[in-house]
Amino acid sequence: MEIRRFRPGDEAALFRVYFTAIHEIASRDYAPEQVEAWAPADLDTGLWARRVRGINPFVAELGDEIVGYADVQQNGYIDHFFVSGAHPRQGIGTRLMARIHEEAEALGLAELSSDVSKTAEPFFALHGFHVVERRCPVLRGVTLENAWMRKDLKQRG
Q: Staple 21 to which of 3, 82, 90, 101, CB 3.0 to 4.6 Å?
């Protein structure tokens, strides 16, 4: 598996990862109407492309297939963190999280934070994040429960 930076042309593959992660994995914790509001099949491709270019994520490739992606912003915020629904529980998320931590160290960040789905909360907790606040954002008129989680990076030993 290779972890690399986003390249123009990755947009459609990243959408497939995002879509399958939500429809095949997160759907265990969210109702069908929540899944559809979160990841509609008819999402505007131009809007999507601008979004992923803007977050400049790390991309996980297995062979020639993109199987996950995640980003960390200059302020330590993790905006997207998704593993393909076809490749769960294969260490992809762990490798992406390790890369995010490497980047955080290179940027001299004091903390990482993210709005985390119910599905991803145990994974983030396993990697040292704790829940700061439970939230109920509304997306396309539908409420989606999540948690704002953070990790203090200054306490490294």
A: 82
